[in-house]
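Case 354 in the screening queue. Each case pairs one protein sequence with one candidate compound; here the compound is adenosine-5'-triphosphate. For every case the pipeline is the same: read the inputs, emit a complex structure as tokens, and attach any notable structural observations.

Predict complex for case 354.
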Amino acid sequence: MSIELKNISKSYGSCQILNHINLTIQTGELVALLGPSGSGKTSLLRVLAGLEYADEGSILFHGINLTDAPIKKRKAGFVFQHYALFNTMTIRENIAYGLKVKSRKFRPSKRAIHEKVDQLLHLVRLEPYGERYPSQLSGGQRQRVALARALAIEPHILLLDEPFGALDAKVRKELRQWLRQLHRQVKMTSLLVTHDQEEAFEVADRIVIINKGQIEQIGTPSQVYEKPVNSFVYDFIGHVNRVRGTIRDGQFINGNFKIPVENTGSTDGIAFIRPDQFSIKAANGHAANRAWPATITHIHPAGSVIRLELERQDDAQSIEVELTKREFSQLSLIKSQRVFLEPKQIKVFAADGL
Ligand SMILES: Nc1ncnc2c1ncn2[C@@H]1O[C@H](COP(=O)(O)OP(=O)(O)OP(=O)(O)O)[C@@H](O)[C@H]1O
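Case 354 output:
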């Protein structure tokens, strides 16, 4: 089931919360909607589900216009952050619930429901827990039950709103991997709302970056990380160093530092450099105008990378650099050492409004 959102806008009073959203989710794709708090993620999911209606635009499910259709017609399975399991029912009963309440005409037989619940318990790896009650499960297990319950009605699409948001970091990580595997098995068209970058990058086929009700970028995780299309995405995704300067005569200039840029005209500019995109060189003689002289202020070993904090000698700006262990040991760096910092990859945007 593919989904197409065309030109969706929505306001509450004078506040526009969705602004001309265009997005296609292909059949079987898992798309993550990632953005800061209040950017409109949940609102978009609710409009898609039929829990809210857009002021403008249309929604097509496999080419059929369901913009004004009620929630039931959209056949969506939901999983929310807070487990909405029924505490007085066993896990089996919880999973079977959506099937048991179907009208007689559409309700499967008792035996078929039992078999379906068996399959789902197997899928979410909770076979031994069918007769327990939700209070006898961990938070992560309860969210897996919530997913099984959502899948029981054989939805056409799966909508996940911060499904692991209430769980601790370790469980979240396990569930992310589990969700990825589960999605590979069931291949259901899915939209995952999250503000957790790691979650979006690890789980999704494509990521939609949303900000102030507008889509900033749509792409695979590597496209979004490697080629952010604007300064918002650069800043929002991963760590980044920002260096302010001037764009003039086709160059970005910051003190003695100069590099050619595509931007023409004269304006203030901001250069973005990821911490792993620096070369560190021994500070011999004068820094070329492609490097900043800097002093190492801190060295933090952080797993497979070494994080360095440096202070630029020309204007005292703090710069964060990441090196592999190998690079670090080859350079034999020590605290307080003076070095030249040369960006390997740098992206400059005009500073309008930043
Ligand atoms: N029923 C409502 N009435 C008025 N304003 C609303 C309503 N629901 C949401 N909003 C506003 O719409 C904007 C988008 O909210 P939404 O919940 O979609 O954001 P979000 O990206 O999901 O945020 P979070 O990550 O914090 O959950 C916010 O400014 C919010 O205050």
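Case 354 observations:
- Residues 12, 17, 35, 37-43, 195 surround adenosine-5'-triphosphate (CB under 6 Å).
- The chain has ten helices and 20 strands.
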